[in-house]
């Protein structure tokens, strides 16, 4: 059961997302699970612009896990070097490809892969398959914490439970909008005056009351 504020935030965010979606190659529809996974795996600790520069070339050279399994780690390092952490990324991809013909489609099984955390697992399954999963990174956490303030839980497990309730059937659209909203509006220095949530956002109401 959602509160009035939760319902409004969800509806407003979906509407905002329709008009403000950022376009990246990995967001194109019909991307495979593998293609979305590669993007989310690279996006960890790496700006989207850097990933966008490497992504098409990487997929061209390594279109499937099978091809990675046949490649040497040095070949992988060479392609992912511009992203940084190239040795770690190459070793993890090589290990995954050596042990899997296909990527798992359960969050827990994806998270069991080397260097894959909750965010990468949930984002991959949501953006590739539309799975109704919460996508929670540092920016998204900041948005929720500001809007819901005292109701926002302390532990990551409770935060995931909290956000799971908010994810609608249009999970892909909702989670993409959340990422874009955290990057474009509710940034470190939030653009509250032009934000759809400023009538009910706890952070904004509090900051206004302190003048
Ligand atoms: S009103 Fe400000 S703090 Fe609240 S969600 Fe909008 S941008 Fe973020």
TrEMBL record:
GO MF annotation terms: 8-oxo-7,8-dihydroguanine DNA N-glycosylase activity; adenine/guanine mispair binding; iron-sulfur cluster binding; metal ion binding; oxidized purine DNA binding; purine-specific mismatch base pair DNA N-glycosylase activity
Residues of the HhH-GPD domain: 42-184
Xref: InterPro entries: DNA_glycosylase, HhH-GPD_domain, HhH_base_excis_C, MIG/MutY
Pfam family, one: HhH-GPD
Keyword Transferase: no
Keyword Transcription attached: no
Coiled-coil stretches: none
Cofactor(s) required for function per UniProt: [4Fe-4S] cluster
This protein's UniProt keywords: DNA damage, DNA repair, Glycosidase, Hydrolase, Iron, Iron-sulfur, Metal-binding
BP GO terms, sorted: base-excision repair; mismatch repair
Record-stated family: Belongs to the Nth/MutY family.
Name this polypeptide is given: HhH-GPD domain-containing protein
Source organism: Haloarcula salina
Organism lineage: Archaea, Methanobacteriati, Methanobacteriota, Stenosarchaea group, Halobacteria
